[in-house]
# Entry
Amino acid sequence: MYLEYWKLKKQPFNSVPDPEMYFDMHQSVDSSVSELLFAVEEGNECLAVVVGPVGVGKTMCLRIVLNALNKNKYRIAFVTNPDMTFPQLLREVVGQLEGKECLERRKDRLFEEFNRILFETSDAGKRVVVFIDEGNAIRPHNLDSLRLLTNMQDDHQNLLTIILAGQPELGKRLEDPRRENLFQRIGVYCRIEGIDSRETMKDYIEHRLERAGLSGDSMFTEAAYDEIWKLSESGMPRLINKMAKLSLKAAETNNQLHVNADIVKAVGARFMRSYVRMRAARKAGMPVETSSETVVIAKPAAHPRPQLKILSRDERERLASQLATERLVHQSKVFDPFEAWSKTREEILRAMESGQFLSQAAG
# Structure
């Protein structure tokens, strides 16, 4: 087992969010944690929102806030999958707050029961906090029903805080002018982005290794950090964790004392083709069929060309990564997918930097 090989006590790069691994130098996560705690503990807000792309650390952010709350002051429900009818969602929340299965099915009775819990909790000097993760899975009409819960207050304060986290699609729905009534109730609106630099990413990896029991220097070489950064899509923690974990295992399998750049590149080459195909397909909204060896993507429908704008350097780098990914999708045979992707990305960047480069504007 690679944990014994590297003398670690626990998984340093587990896919399950572990608050013990919290890295407070991920600036946008750290800021979001502070703002959400303020919304609950001091701001008396009824609704707080966190948005960010897949794998950036939204769930970890919620878990940190959850762990930081004094359980003697708050009654808490945490919904991990809100893709359900509103009565089902309300029944899940009531059941968690009561600590037993809620059998009520009627929407009006569920509202009455929830309202009773709120005032009972307030009379006991406590407050209700409801966390909803994967908020982009909430059915659009349920967002309007969710607004009804934010109306529950007494003469002096809101009786609960709802913390809603999801992907950028959630933000777009909330910002829709048709939901202005709900949007105006948002007291804290946080946006989480990737880790901001290669050096911060290195600190992130070493922090997690230390929390996992590493004593002494990191087993990753500087060149290995460079390669992980290239694969991380500008600092996505989930991708960093994946590459670091697989690289540790590959180095252990080959009896290496360090994780070098060649090991990271070899690991990247194994999953890059499947990953870039699925990534491009999902961004284009195309159906994806996967197996252990192949990924089949449906042919996209034609779309009109959107308006254009001039890109900053950071935007050019992100776009170059996306374009390189899309080019690889259409190549059936690539000897080294990672090398091909890196080379293509650099060629695109050079073409961009030879003059002003226009790209498709986002919305």
